[in-house]
Amino acid sequence: MDIITNIAQGFIGWFTTGGETFTGWVTNIIPQIVCLLTFMNSIIKLVGEEKVERTAQKFTKYALLRYTIFPMLALLFLANPMGYSLGRFLDEKYKPAYFDAFAAFAHPVTGLFPHANAGELFVYMGIAQGLQQAGYELGGLAVRYFIVGLIVALFRGVITEKIYFHLTKADD
Amino acid sequence: MAYRNIKITKGSAGFGGPLIIEPTETRNKVLCVTGQTISPVAKKIAEMTGCELVDGFKTTVPDDQVAVAVVNCGGTARCGVYPRKHIMTVNVEPVGAVGPLAQYITEDIYVSDVSEKNLSYTDETNASAAKSAAEELEAADAAGDNGPKTKDQAKADVAAAQEGQKQNLVTRIGVGVGHVVNKFFAAGRDSIDMVIRNILPFMAFTSTLLGIISASGLGNVIANTISPFCSTLPGMIFISFICGLPFLSPILGPGAVIAQVVGTLLGAEFAKGNIPAQYALPALFAIDAQVGCDFIPVGLSLGEAEPDTIEMGVPAVLYSRVITGPLAVVIAYFFSIGMY
Question: Any coiled-coil ranges, and where (chain A) (predicted)?
């Protein structure tokens, strides 16, 4: 009987640890996220999709902007996954590269603007939470993640563009 | 006069529709329930269909005479009341199936975030034609009472409904504030929705997993195997290379679940000090070389790419990741210098 009791207690114990983690996340992360999400969602609704689309189109001409500012605006105002739809403003040959740049930035954006990809927060949040527990400030990480995200988006865009051009030429 | 059928589509942030409004001899009223002023959308619907415009705040009409109701509801009552009565409902606010009457708000009877440009005649097929028709109407509007005879009745109704309704400053401020408040309210609802549908379930699943891992001793195994990898630049480059392999990346991608779980596991190691804090930035890129790889065809078709583009675009992105995955880690590594 003791053995069974011990096993049962051990089994419950697994979930006590899980429960503590869960409570910690809910009380530490959710309140701030809710307010931030509400604020950003309000701004998006007030600005309106059409205005964003009109503005975003101005950034499609040069690779430097096409794979940085353009996906950034798409993420900030249309979020993941609808931001992919802005690809329709690009020439057909740039679409795969835009996809790659957008995807590359889809997680780096969440450090500062969680609303842009609220369903996939924990890539950043998982690591950030750990650092916070260890007593580090997160501001520096979030900003650097954002900046490096833009640089990586540009690299991915340019390199994928080259590879796509190469593949399609080989195909002809 | 003859009534015309119109089609109403949802706006960019809207829900439901498209609705086809088919007025008949008995069902020929546009009921506008938008507070102190008549919504321009209701006005336009009345003009286009030839229906009589009725201000729901001043008078009422029997439900069976209402062809369509126009509301500006932020998501509590009005948006559900009319669908519940089986009356076609147009909401000018971007509100979906929400509120206490959400169950009655269905796509076949309700459409939201509607503005004047979402209205078109059913017998016109392309957008430009609809637009020119709309312009024509506007021109007719500008011409005032001298507009085409066929629209006279509708216009008279509109004028009657507008009577005594000089938009004074107080009303305009009131409408403006209401509009903004509605948007904030809808934004709050979206946020809570997101938390309940996506964030909380992920937290539930991951915290359970973490609990089991740490309580069962598996945590120590991970700490001893993965942590050393993530404490060196070559180790992280290796991880990103693996994640970016073209035959693995689409499998690792879906919903970023794996990246999120790995991120959380690594977070626990950062918390314990098993991995030095300055490696956080490159680690974020190391575990994420596969981001979106499961989504390439869908993402490209969202961008209205041709099938040919998708066919060659998928391998282009996948191959690119083999190079850019490790490259991202290196860039992040240099940017992390001096962070902590």
Answer: none
Please tell me the distance from the alpha carbon of residue A97 to that of residue A76, in angstroms, as a whole number. 19
Interface test with A, best of B117, B185, B207, B252 (most A CBs within 10 A): B207
Over 60: is that where the pLDDT of A171 sits? no
| Pairing label, strands B89-91, B6-8 | unpaired
Domain boundaries, chain B: 6-123, 218-335
| B291 Cβ neighbours under 8 A, 6+ residues apart | A103, A104, A106, A107, B253, B256, B259
Buried b (16+ CB within 10 A) or exposed e, B23-38: beeebbbbbbbbbebb
Number of alpha helices (DSSP H) and beta strands (DSSP E) in chain B: 13, 8
Determine what percent of chain A is predicted with pLDDT higher than 90: 37
Could you report the per-residue pLDDT of A26-53, keeping only the tens digit for each?
A: 988 889 888 988 888 888 888 887 888 8
State how far the Cα of B203 lies from the Cα of B196, in Å rounded to an integer: 10
Dist. CA B217–CA B221, nearest whole Å: 7
Provide ipTM, 2 decimals.
0.85
Q: How far is CA A164 from CA A63, A157, B319, B332, in A?
A: 15, 10, 10, 25
Q: CA nearest A150 in B: which residue? A: B328
pLDDT tens profile A137-151: 998 999 999 999 999
B186 vs B173: CA distance, rounded Å? 20
Q: Which two tokens stand for residue B12?
A: 């960019």
Both tokens assigned to B111: 């459409």
Residues of B in contact with A110 (CB under 8 A): none
**Among candidates B264, B288, B276, B287, which has minimal Cα distance to B227?**
B276
User: Per-residue b/e over A4-25, b at no fewer than 16 CB within 10 Å?
Assistant: eeeeeeeeeebeebbeebbeeb
Q: How far is A1 from chain B (nearest CA, A)?
A: 22
Q: Is A138 helix (H, G, I), strand (E, B) or coil?
A: coil
Beta bridge partners, B76, equal none
Residue B111, strand partner residues: B16, B90
DSSP 8-state symbol, A119? G
What backbone phi and psi angles, to 5 degrees, belong to B71? -125, 165
Distance separating alpha carbons of residues B63 and B157, to the nearest angstrom: 19
User: B244 with A156: CB under 8 angstroms?
Assistant: no
- Could you please report the per-residue DSSP string of B42-89? HHHHHHHHTPEEEETTT----GGGEEEEEE---SSSHHHHHHHTT--E
